[in-house]
């Protein structure tokens, strides 16, 4: 066995002191004790002859440094992807008020459309920023995203328009002068909810999603108009 500690190079002590802990077996392989015992257990008799012939502490692959081994350099930081971020909830008002949640890693992503089909996409460029979908999305199409202070818009090659825009509605709201008991809006990103008359209402961006309250909720969520004039 090697004249140094450690069962394998992956052990904490081996990493700390820089031991790779391996010796040559007669057929020329360089094995750690862990590898040698495992090979012998599987019937590899040559692996059983693992004798360290070097003098104590002179094995070149388990030299005692006298101090902990230096930390390996961190891997280089990969360059940022050359594409824009399309992730998040998108709506197609007024035909698709329920948001489609796009997820993205690097320059590719996916979402589940209204029919339950999974659509994949590839993002490219930043100015302009384009998105190209798989055939599951209307046979495949390309969109261009434009950003403004009011949010982001994708204009698709077939004429559809998607919006990713949201304002911060979180907080307590009252309907002055009709009622003064506040309704509390909670929001995470562009999604949120509040309770109205015992009914939970969800919203995304500036569009309400609850079908029963949409006519009323449209006035509440689409703009900060006098229907809900105060927030405290």
What features would you describe in this structure?
A hairpin with a 4-residue loop joins strand 6 and strand 7. The protein has three helices and 16 strands. It is 10% helix and 36% strand. It is elongated, with a radius of gyration of 31 Å. The model is unreliable at 206-232 (pLDDT under 50). The protein starts with 11 loop residues before the first helix and ends with a strand. It has helices at residues 12-17, 33-41, 214-221, and strands at residues 23-24, 30-31, 88-92, 96-105, 108-112, 118-124, 129-133, 142-148, 151-156, 161-164, 171-175, 179-188, 191-196, 199-204, 207-208, 230-231. It has three domains: 1-75, no CATH class; 88-164; 171-231, no CATH class. The chain has an eight-stranded antiparallel sheet, with no helix packed on it. The chain is mainly beta and 232 residues long.
| Structural class label | mainly beta
> Which whole number gives the mean pLDDT?
76
Radius of gyration: 31 Å
Given as residue ranges, the uncertain stretches (5+ residues, pLDDT < 50) are 206-232
Strand content: 35-45%
> Percentage of helical residues?
under 10%
What is the approximate shape? elongated
Q: Within the largest sheet, what's the order of strands?
A: 3-4-5-6-7-8-9-10
Number of helices: 3
**Separation, N- and C-terminal Cα atoms:** 74 Å
The total tally of domains equals 3
């Amino acid at each position: 066995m090697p004249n140094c500690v450690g069962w394998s190079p992956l052990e904490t002590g081996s990493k700390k002191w820089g031991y790779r802990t391996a010796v040559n077996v007669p057929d020329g392989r360089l094995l750690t004790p862990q590898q040698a015992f495992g090979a012998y257990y599987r019937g590899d008799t040559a692996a059983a002859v693992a004798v360290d012939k070097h003098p104590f502490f002179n094995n070149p692959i388990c030299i005692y440094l006298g101090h902990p081994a230096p930390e390996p350099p961190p891997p280089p930081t990969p360059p940022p992807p050359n594409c824009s971020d399309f992730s998040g909830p998108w709506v197609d008002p007024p035909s698709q008020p329920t948001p489609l949640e796009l997820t993205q890693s690097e320059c590719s992503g996916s979402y589940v459309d209204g029919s339950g089909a999974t659509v994949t996409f590839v993002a490219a460029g930043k100015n302009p920023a384009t998105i190209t979908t798989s055939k599951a999305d209307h046979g495949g199409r390309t969109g261009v995203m434009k950003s403004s202070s009011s949010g982001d818009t994708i204009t698709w090659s077939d004429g559809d328009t998607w919006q990713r825009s949201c304002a911060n509605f979180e907080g307590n709201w009252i309907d002055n002068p009709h009622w003064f008991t506040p309704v509390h809006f909670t929001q995470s990103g562009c999604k949120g909810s509040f309770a109205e008359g015992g009914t939970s209402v969800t919203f995304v961006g500036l569009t309400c999603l609850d079908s029963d309250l949409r006519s009323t909720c449209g006035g509440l969520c689409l703009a900060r108009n006098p229907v809900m004039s105060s927030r405290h």
